[in-house]
Amino acid sequence: MDMGNQHPSIKRLHEIQKEVKEIEQQVALFSGLSTDRDYKKLERSLTKQLFEIDSVDTEGKGDIQQARKRAAQETERLLKELEQNANHPRRLEIEALFKEAQSLVEREITPFYKGGNCISDEFEEGIQDIVLRLTQVKTGGKVSLRKARYRTLTKICAVQEIIESGVKQQLSLPLSNDAHPSVSKINSVMCEVNKARGTLIALLMGVSTNDTCRHLSCVLTGLIADLDALDVCGHTEIRNYRKVVVEEINKLQRYLDLDEEANSTHAYDLAQNQSILKIEEIRKKMKEVNSLLLKTENASDLYLGSKAELQGLIAQLDEVSPGKNPCIREARRRAVIEVQTLITYIDLKEALEKRQMYPERTAAEHQSHKAIWTVLGNLSQIQQEVISFDGNRTDKNYMRLEELLTKQLLSLDAVDPQGDERCKAARKQAVKLAQNILYYLDMKTDEWEY
């Protein structure tokens, strides 16, 4: 339709819809909370467009009324999507974990403010536990949730790195003030760098009300200027010392750009990440081996070749670099478990077949040992079903497999080794196998995604 011949009200609605369309992408990518400044800004913009749409005069004409109604519905949809993004249960779960990390940081950050490096094991374990739980938050492929999870992980992992770096530097620095007049100044700068670490951690975790990223950046730039002004000509050791301190300051400055990096699609959407693509390629090969093993009626001839191929896949997974991304690290860990489960399945099958080849030996076995082998035979059959299982935790088959595995654990618990050390060791290994199969079943059905 020629725009020049359109009714002025229709023209105005098209202009408003164009402005709403520009806001749509911002809404889809919004990863914050309803208390955030960006949320309020988007909410105001969309509400303003609703008022603009409402002010368009339809002159009682049906086509204009319909056009205005459609424009209002689209704007209301975006307002609803914005609210859902900010209040999604998984988004609130991510925020709760971040608050937990904030609480840990507030308790332990004081030493860093004073230029120290005394961080408790409890803090390190607590932060690592939060990182693990964050990687397991289910995003369902929703971009806003992926982005929120990545931003939170980035900040908490940065805190881990800053603390680790601070401890390492404290162990190797400083040089003695007596070595050279410049050393005293470098040592003084290094003390300021240690304090800057504390400030940076507080800023990253949102627990500082007395400082800003801009001010910290200026402080760090000033420290580099102080170091550049020092005369260390002819003193290689001191020059290297200064270089180390400058590199440490540059590292801290890079952390100040984390928010910008977290806005980059390639950072939080891992579907096209090279490491993830490599992991998925390896998993595809693993599934091909899996399919061949389970479909072949007499697979004993395949065991040796399959196991060698699977061990090769483990080696390939070891070479995949997760970088600093815990989600990639978790994806690799899970892939390793998948491959190792298949190797364990082959090992047990081989052991059971070998046992059947020597009936005279089994006849003379201790009764407790025979009972354990009976359970291992049951576990082999259950493991095959678990490997083939492709459902979720609401499936009856899942509950049946879980119950079968629990029964095998109870059977093992009832075995009395009667002081036989070999039998005790065999029972312990069988219990571990049953627990590993149960864990693998849970892992297959926990709906995790990167």
Describe the secondary-structure layout:
Elements: H1 8-29, H2 37-54, H3 62-87, H4 89-108, H5 110-113, H6 121-135, H7 143-172, H8 181-204, H9 213-228, H10 236-255, H11 258-262, H12 265-268, H13 274-295, H14 303-319, H15 326-356, H16 359-363, H17 367-388, H18 396-414, H19 421-444
Helix pairs in contact: 1-2, 1-3, 2-3, 4-6, 4-7, 6-7, 7-8, 8-9, 8-10, 9-10, 13-14, 13-15, 14-15, 15-17, 15-19, 17-18, 17-19, 18-19
How does this model look, in words?
This protein is mostly helical and 450 residues long. It contains 19 helices and no strands. The protein has helices at residues 8-29, 37-54, 62-87, 89-108, 110-113, 121-135, 143-172, 181-204, 213-228, 236-255, 258-262, 265-268, 274-295, 303-319, 326-356, 359-363, 367-388, 396-414, 421-444. It is flat and about 90 Å long.
Features:
0% strand, 450 residues
